[in-house]
């Protein structure tokens, strides 16, 4: 089996929710001498990108995404021990959570899954997060991005408060802020000074990577 074929098969079996086969193929790829980073980028993450597309097209839903994520993590468990420290690149660090007053976290959880699957280091604060915690955690882990979501119009202003708190502390230029959720729009993001607005998890991953690449 050629390198290209085995990497395609890893992606295909991940999309088809076959974790055991993904593990077998990852082991085969390592035995063929394929670099762990190639297996991750061109096999596992390529498959998860397709899962994200299927979710956006409403062919897959949250349960399917979760099963595919399990297949991804099973593959990563095989491959990651073979990455040498010198080869490991510094991951993008993201703090995410649902703003104070809101407990709706399905969308946030999906972003967490998709970002983690794409190699982003995600620190999830959960839901109903006190606004100060976004900044405290970002400072603690030296994050690159702060992400906030809400499904309630009554808690939207919490996002603006976090941005103002960053400004007051002289930290606004240190972090890129991305926001999302049912009532959120690009115009609202522009109004409060957020750096990124997305309405899907897959788009959030793409935009964060694009912005990080431009820093």
From TrEMBL:
* GO MF annotations in UniProt: cobalamin binding; metal ion binding; methionine synthase activity
Show the GO cellular component annotation of the record.
cytosol
Record Pfam families = B12-binding (PF02310), B12-binding_2 (PF02607)
Which CDD domains did the record assign?
A: corrinoid_protein_B12-BD
| Keywords carried by this UniProt record | Cobalt, Metal-binding
Superkingdom, natural source: Archaea
Carries keyword Repeat?
A: no
Outline the extent of the B12-binding domain: 91-215
Which PROSITE patterns does the record associate with it? B12_BINDING (PS51332), B12_BINDING_NTER (PS51337)
Gene3D superfamilies with a match to the protein in the record? Cobalamin-binding domain, Methionine synthase domain
Gene Ontology biological process terms in this record: homocysteine metabolic process; tetrahydrofolate metabolic process
Residue ranges of the B12-binding N-terminal domain?
A: 1-91
Into which family does the record put it? Belongs to the methylamine corrinoid protein family.
The name on file for this protein is Dimethylamine corrinoid protein
The protein's organism comes out as: Methanococcus maripaludis (Methanococcus deltae)
């Amino acid at each position: 089996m050629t390198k290209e074929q085995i990497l395609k098969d890893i992606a295909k079996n991940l999309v088809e929710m076959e974790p055991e086969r993904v593990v077998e193929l990852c082991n085969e790829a390592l035995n063929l001498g394929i670099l762990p980073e190639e297996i991750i980028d061109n096999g596992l993450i390529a498959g998860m990108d397709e899962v994200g597309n299927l979710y956006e097209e409403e062919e897959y839903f949250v349960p399917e995404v979760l099963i595919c994520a399990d297949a991804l993590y099973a593959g990563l468990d095989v491959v990651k021990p073979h990455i040498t420290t010198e080869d490991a690149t510094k991951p993008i660090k993201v703090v995410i959570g649902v703003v104070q007053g809101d407990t709706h976290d399905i969308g946030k959880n999906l972003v967490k899954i998709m970002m983690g699957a794409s190699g982003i280091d995600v620190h999830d604060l959960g839901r109903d997060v006190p606004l100060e915690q976004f900044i405290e955690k970002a400072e603690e882990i030296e994050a690159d991005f702060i992400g906030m979501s809400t499904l309630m119009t009554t808690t939207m202003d919490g996002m603006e408060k976090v941005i103002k708190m960053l400004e007051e502390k002289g930290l606004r230029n240190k972090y890129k802020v991305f926001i999302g959720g049912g009532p959120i729009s690009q115009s609202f993001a522009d109004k409060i000074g957020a750096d990124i607005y997305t309405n899907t998890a897959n788009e959030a991953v793409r935009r964060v990577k694009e912005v990080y690449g431009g820093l």
